[in-house]
Write the structure tokens for this entry.
Amino acid sequence: MADHPVPRRGVDVEAIAATSSYRELIDRLQRRIRESQARAARALNTELVMLYWSIGHDILAEQQTGGWGEDIVGRIAEDLRVETGSARGFTRRNLFYMRRFAALWPEAEKVPSVMAQISWTAHRSLLDHFADDRDLYVWYAAKAAENRWSVRHLQGQIALGLHQRQGSALTNFAAALEPADANQALQATKDPYIFDFLELAEDARERDLELALIADIQKFLLELGTGFAFYGRQKPLLVGEQEFFLDLLFYHHALRRFVVIELKIGKFEPEFVSKMNFYLNAVDEQLRRGDDRESVGIILCTDRDETIAKLALHRVYAPIAVSTWRADTPRPELPAIEITEDVPADLSELSELDTVRTRLIERVAQRAPETAGEDD
């Protein structure tokens, strides 16, 4: 194929840089660079996590077969520092984390694939809370990977018991939706919702609550969960000759449904359901398009009587959830969604780590005669 000639003179660089084609080229290259960097970070993280698993596995195996006590871990940390010329990653404390991680999954091939999708710092947080509960460990690891949580956000969700709140709303989804859709929609709900970033006066009204949530929409969306896209507040709907206004309207991309949220300060009342049913019918008639599915409603109250809520939802065919919310639960400040990759900044450092596993066994074996008679 013939080479295309490249002009070398008489080119107005600034004029070219101002064209849309040039901007499209820059945007395309930037996307490619970011995607490549993300893939490299994930590959490095995978390597690092599995390396740490192997170190923990070997330490655990040597301690079990040799009958060595806990003090040997400190000596291993010191020898690794000497061997690698750096203490990074090989402190006594971190080696204990590696050992606990390996104890959870004794066989490398059975380490869940999601484990390599989160940072080692995230693993340390999970080990602090769920070293004896593999199911919860994997559940939170999967949530952290799916939602690209920072470590601080992961810690906040653990502190607030997300596994107990998610999918706990009182709903009629089982009767109103197909089984697979009902479960998926239920997992998009929580009870209670924690809006501890709000500062509301004691005499605050529902409009004050609405405005406060929208004023901090990023944290509000974080609490709602993955998939929610804000569509509008006080969304007008013209039905007949009357105009009605929705408190908050979202679109959930995974569910492919509009989600109407009604905010209430006070206890749940049965009439809230009939009003929500009306809103959902109107949204489906006026806004639903193409392959959009039937809209879902969430009524958020500060309190509810479950018996009354269940009876109110009975024989209502629009899918509606009744949840509670509160704003008085303290927790650490949670940052915006960010990707935190706990990988070496210098790629050469990871290449050095590749020799650690082999050296570890050799060094520990050399020290075995010295420590065999010690009371650890």
Residues 331-354, 367-376 have pLDDT under 50 and may be disordered.
